[in-house]
Amino acid sequence: MRELLLGLRLLLGSGRGSRVRFLLMALGTAIGVSCLAVVLTIPGILAAQDSRMAARQPSCARDSQGHCIGTKGAPRELTRTDPLGSRPMTRVFITPGTKHIEPPPGLVELPRPGEIILSPRLHEVLHAEPGLAKLLPGRERGLIGAQGLAHPDELYAYVGVLPATLKNADVVTFFGMPYPPSPTVENSTLDIVRFTLAGVVLLPLAVFLSVCARLSAAVRVRRLAALRLLGLSTKAVQRVNAAETVAAAALGAVLGLGIYALVNQLISRAGLPGFKWYPSDGALSFSTILICLVGCPALAWFVGRVSARRAAANPLAVRRSAAQKPPAKWGLLPLVPGLGVVAGYCVVGATGHAPRDTRLSAVLMPLAVVFVGVGLVLALPLLSRAIARRVARWSGPLFLGLAMRRNEAEPGGALRVATGLVLLVYAASLVQGVLIELDQVSKHESPVQGYSIGLDDVTAEQQHVLEHIAGIRGHAVQMRSWMDPHTDAFEPTIDAVIATCGQLRELVPIVDGCVDDGPVRLLDRAQDVGGDSKPGNAFAFHLRGAGHGRFMHLRVPEKTLRYRDWDGISALDAEVLIPPSVLPKGYRPENASLVLLSSSDPATVRNVLDGIGGVDPTIAVDPYGINVTALQQIAVVKTLLAIGMVLGLIIGVAAYLVAATDRAMERKSQVTALALLGARPRTLRAAQVAQVVVPLAVGLVLAVVTGKAAESSYLVTGGGAIFWDGKGVPLLLACAVGAVAVAALGSLPLVGRRIDPELIRRD
Question: Alpha carbon 68 to chain centroid distance?
Fold first, then answer.
């Protein structure tokens, strides 16, 4: 305890420079802790949203065989989720029952037939787009409370309907399930977020907090050496140094948590694109507070003890005239396994043998990214010293010689300024790879959009109306051959499309010589049809009409019709074309669906979906290629990645500003000595710029190369079609050039016009 108090007394009584250094350490730690709190609270926000979604899920009590019990007089419900632009809109249709049940969270009571209860955001959208009234029939009765919504922008509605208008409804006896059917972010997608945040935020954050704990290291080490010579023990000297770093880290941790609490209140109310949350979801949890208040001071304690070990063990080794030891070559050690894994994945991707074991890749890739990032930080002093020694031997300009000799004698000084910017460029490349993978999942480049509607859900009259909705350019009925449900033996099946040649030409872009003279075998030019659709194979299709069913037997014909389907989407997925005239009059196929085709223009897609809802708002529609839930998850992930990049940028810039300010304070005496020896201010400024720019340029070249390699290896393990992304190289190079320019401009003010001889009096 005496050593800790001595460290605090030395801090308060050692002049303005020490107090400024302490404030820099505390401010830097506060910025780092606030960024750490953001990363730690993201899983809590997602879990809170999933919990509210699970609490509102319709359910029923089940017996040992999985059948609902207590269903007599219970209400029934039908849930439909449709795309509204790129966001999902969920409608829960509820029919009343004689049995009373507790309403879901956010509702006082269930809506009656003809009433709707909307989320606040859907209420606004409905008034802005009156066409949605077809999907939301009824008069508004109220709004859903916050406890019944996943987030403030959710599009959710409860619609009360009569029992006669609801088909295929499920019994509901209570609301609430242990897990939501569709979480905010799937576990596999959340792994991408964890992987990226580890490389973009946590790795630079650990380096940044370590830099903040080692500000003005040379001055502090010499002061500790003096205490050791005065008789303090080795451990006592380490505790004196740790007192200052722990005090700064503790103060910074408290400030950082306060900054986060304020930012959470502001940002949660304003919202981010694709991702909003309630302020209470982002509140600091006990575990987050514990990690920040205990973990950061613990890291500072460890760094403080390690940095004081040399002065405590050998005080004379840290005197001003003592030569510093060259950086240890073991700094290259983490870089070797990291680059080994990255290069291995790049090689197997280039040779066309992309790995299939995603579980192994999910472990190796994050480790490789962390090893490469740590290796960049540890290898930079070694490479900088080697380059500085080689350049210093060259008889070039005076400013370059001064800069390189300083980097050779003190290779870690300028790199404290450059490390944050190097890691920022490295992280930017990783984020590019993740965005490329997400774009491959969400990309929809086809000029058409298909829709599939089960014929069991619509009548013949409704089918006729659906086929003539404004915006529909083609339609057909697709049915599957009958399979005996009472047999366990494998029975081959095929799909057949019921359409005329004119309808077929409206569905696909190219058809070769179609004639309406009977069934024909279909063959896509881009695919080889085989197996069950071989000519001569016989199949049966079940039809229903006039209250009873019958079978239609079909043998795959020899005559073949070739066609070409759309790129990116399949509008025709069938092996046989059957003209409508072949079907018996008055019969409709069972196990069939109505296929509609429209333009992929977003406005047309919206109009078609509204038109389908106008026919019957409870119809289940499957829009080909539009997984609105996946799109919503991708939007959330992209927003989280953007948050990570912003945090990485804040950490990188903060590391630069803190380290540059600290370096300016440390270098005052050396700059003054050179000025007294006759060096011009212009020469000193050029030397200061070169001293930072040269090692930074080396680090940025390594960051771009290793970052692109890590990005490519990540794309190889992701299983997508793109492994190499040349489009991102100009952006990375622009980021690197910008980082060099910022570092050069930041180095200019380090040399002033005023010469203060007092700064070198002790020398």
Answer: 39
